[in-house]
Amino acid sequence: MSMSMSMSTSGDLLSDEERLRRFASLTDRALAYLSTEDLLVELLDRLCEMLTVDAAVVLLMDESRSYLVTTVARGMEDAVRQDVRVPVGLGFAGRIATDMNAAILDDLHQEMVPDPLMRDRGFVSLLGVPLVSQGTVMGVLQLGSLEPRQFTQDDVQLLQSAGDRMAPALEARSSNEQRSAAVMLQRSLVPPRLPPVAGLSMAARYVPGEGGAVGGDWYDVFTLPTGHVGLAVGDVVGHGLWAAVVMGRLRSALRAYALSSLDPGEVLTQLDAKLRHFEPSQMATLLYGVLDPKLERIQLSSAGHLPAILAAPGGRSVDLDVPPDLPLGVSFGDPRRTTTVDIAADGLLCLYTDGLVERRGEHLDQGIARLRSTLHPGGDPEDACGSIMAALVGREEPRDDIALLVVKRELVQEHNALVVPAEPSALARIRVALRRWLAATDASDAAADDLLVAVCEAAANSVEHAYGPAGGTIEVSLELGDGEVTATVRDNGSWRPARGCGRGRGMLLMERCSDEVHIDRGTAGTEVKLYRRLWGDGDP
Amino acid sequence: MAGDQQAPGSGATPEGTFVVSSRHDDHRVIVELKGELDIDSSSRLTAELEEAMDLTPDRLEIDASDLTFVDSAGLYALLVASDKAETRGTTFRVTAVSPLVRRVIELGGLGAVLLPPPQEE
User: Fold this and answer.
1) B73 interfaces chain A, CB cutoff of 8 Å
2) Shortest CA distance to A310 belongs to which of A378, A383, A366?
3) How confident is the model over B48-77, as pLDDT tens digits?
4) Most CB atoms closer than 10 Å: which of A29, A62, A412, A474?
5) Which residues of A touch B100 (CB under 8 A)?
6) Which residue on chain A is closest to B107 by alpha carbon?
7) Is A283 left (phi over 0), alpha (psi -120 to 50) or beta?
8) Does B3 reach chain A within 8 Å, measured CB to CB?
9) pTM assigned to the model
10) Does the pLDDT value for residue A351 go beyond 80?
């Protein structure tokens, strides 16, 4: 701890000018080669040595400017590890921060200074200077001696000059930290890869604003246990770390509320109440939509957000007429509205934030019109995102950050296969996939119902009979033929008696809901093939 | 292509695919089914129906207006409950069925047992 004490004599042999010169050269060279963190440690070590003290510490203002936080220390590293804080205005360092003046304390024990930070560690004499950057106190640089000593005005000058060199580096460190934290947060919450959803293809873009500044824009896509799909694009007012933090909270809360209601208006009413209570000074716009499990229609609620654009096959792109309610955070808690819109197969839906359509010296409507004319039905969402960004951003650096999400409801795929674990809970997943696939065919309601019943009975048979406790998988594949669907349900198990009972009607339902059933019980597993016409009633 | 306004609340709950609840007055218990009834959920229905039967109502009605799917395991749970109800002198009916639920009940040969007679509908 007091290693520097033993070297104390060397400093006294040098003139003050020489000490200052040495110090200056050290900082200049170190700045070029050391990371900010190493630089600070190096400077504090140097100060301890040159001024023959036992400890040196940098305390920085916290976000709320009510505490000084011990950030880097030599000779009292434990204070950093314990996250010791000094209230601004109190204690030795706290007074320096408010007075914006250097201070000397010859004997801490003789003064009525409440300073547990230094007193508890046995320091007797203290010297401190404010760290000022652009006219604002950002912290305090402070030295402590375990032996009583009298600091001189020369010591003060040297420390102040060290502080003046540290302040810009600290400022840069703090804003770098904030910027990279914001970027990391943004990246983790707005992932470039979207979750795979059968029947949908999607693409998205996120671009930070001027000078790489991330803000509070985000997009999100998630599936719900019922097979509904949530889509969101939002914009928290403001920039930087705090906007990104609020965005992250809104994103999580939206997902949580989405689990308790399928009605977007209800979800946004709850989200609004949450924001107003827990982050009362924040405001955000948000467009939230819920696609039904068949992906045929979407329910939307808008919290003051720009309209989504829909490119429907055979038509022009249009702004979706979703009457916006007030943004989140500034409402009076009135219930929010939900609007339902049909989505045709091959249709493209585009959600975005204002950064995409806002340009200097241009009306917002012009940008939205340009976006509409760029979006065409039937295209690939990845290509659509590419053309939209090229047409609307071009070579210009966007002022605001941009979030863009393009979702397409795919045309029916002639072959579709799904593998699920042979567990009762997987049957719901099979139904979601089957309903979604059938909705994209022109099967009649009666034919779709029949296929749903027959396939689920076949799959339930595999769940109950195919595997022992170790379990296995079931593969369901669907094939669209000429006016007919062939559904194949396959397992790799050997038939064994069911653990439950009462499913005797399963085979009956399977047969009556299909035009034809083939069952192949081989040694390698069971394969059930079901045929059903797309129209007309079933068997009976 | 403008969207139309819709009242909130679609009956389904996002966190679970089957929800069962009941209410009763003096002589009748109404058991409401929402979502999908299959081998994964039929035991929950059986438990609820046994509790309902312990109240020895005159009538036990299954409100199936929000039931979107039923399979043979669900059908069996309904059949067992209806047998028990019969031995206790309770009238057992499944009401407000969707086309799919009606079809499964009828193809399973249980139309006469579970569905109300035509004049009641």
Assistant:
1) yes
2) A378
3) 999 998 888 999 999 999 999 999 999 999
4) A474
5) 449, 452-453
6) A509
7) beta
8) yes
9) 0.73
10) yes
User: What residues of B are in contact with residue A508 (Cβ under 8 Å)?
Assistant: 72, 107-109
Closest to A356 in 3D by CA, of A374, A339, A330:
A374
> What ipTM score was computed for the predicted complex, to two decimals?
0.87
- Residue A7 CB neighbour total at 10 angstroms: 12
- Rounded distance, CA B118 to CA A180, Å? 71
Task: Tokens for A133, please give them.
Answer: 């950057």
Please report the pLDDT score of residue A328 as a whole number.
Answer: 97
Backbone angles phi, psi at A205, to 5 degrees: -135, 145
* Measured distance CA(A91)–CA(A126) in Å, rounded: 11
Asked if residues A199 and A295 have their Cβ atoms less than 8 Å apart, the reply is yes
Across the interface, of B12, B71, B107, the residue whose CB is closest to A512 is B107
Nearest CB neighbour to A425, from listed B1, B13, B40 = B40
Residue A232: both structure tokens together: 């969101």
Q: Which positions in chain A touch B2 (Cβ < 8 Å)?
A: 321
CB < 8 Å to B77, chain A: 502
pLDDT score at A398: 79
Interacting residues of A12 by C-beta distance below 8 A, sequence separation 6+: A52
| pLDDT at position A231 over 90 | yes
Answer yes or no: are the C-beta atoms of A348 and A310 closer than 8 Å.
yes
